[in-house]
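Chapter summary example.
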Amino acid sequence: MKRAKEPKRSNARRFDAAVDLFKSALAMNPDSPELLNDLGYAEAYRGNLDGARSALERYRALQPNQPNALDSLGEVHFMAGRFADAEKYFVDAQRMQPDFLGGVELLKAAQARYLAGNRAGADELYAQFDQFRRQGGDALANIRRAEWLRITGRAQEAVAAAEAASSGPNPDLAAYALAHLSLWAMDSGDRAKAADLAGRASQTARNPNVQRLAAMCRLITAPQPQMPELAQAYASLFAKDAAKAAAVLKPLYDRSPPASDGDIRALYAWALADSGNTAEARRLVERYFIPMGAGEEPLFTTEVFPHFVALRTNLIK
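The structure predicted for these 317 residues follows.
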């Protein structure tokens, strides 16, 4: 977390060059927490966990009473699939500062424990996160619960939880829940239901961001000649035109910063795998995404998370 704006070399996925750049900068400013943090992520992106850990432990030594280094250590271990280590770092960050990033360390730790194969234990950590958020008056708590059920393989329970959230009095919360339900209905193959849900979300939403998400869902269910690339990619995937989706997603992926490319990378890998390019899809899923709660839109993360896990299972032996 707290990643600085990435250099062009990192955005272009020239991670070796990015590492060299950060090391040169550190030679002139060896006690810069920001540079050490950036170096840690650049090392993680190129698959060098030892290098990432070394840089971030130096950062941690400079600021031993701040939780951000622990969070970063958790994320780079998560990306490497070292989930027990990731969980420990996330929990340590939360214990050091319980309100750090709104308690999201517990959500990240829960995901790490789930991907390590312990869903019951992950639910226990999620319950702590849920309690913390509700005590703070989180209006999204019910929707977050539906998202958690979805990413942990309980699709029907997730739908029931989102339906309950969609019946509340707040129009934007209801619309946001309906947008989730629309996307999930498309994934299950029920286009008519998805279109109805997206239409209801659009009619209900008042907040501009929720209106935008609802409009995206409407486009996914009823594609138009001119539409955003992401909506076009989803629409193509759901229409079983994976090759078209892959063509749309490639430039979108190429310009996505590595720190926030998880959803796009997972979607692109899904499209490549479904169009028969398993070698490239395998390369894209070798590194795990940064866990949900680190900044990407949960609506889309809950859709691609299960597909990413399935791709990993099928492609990484």
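To summarize the output: The chain has 18 helices and no strands.
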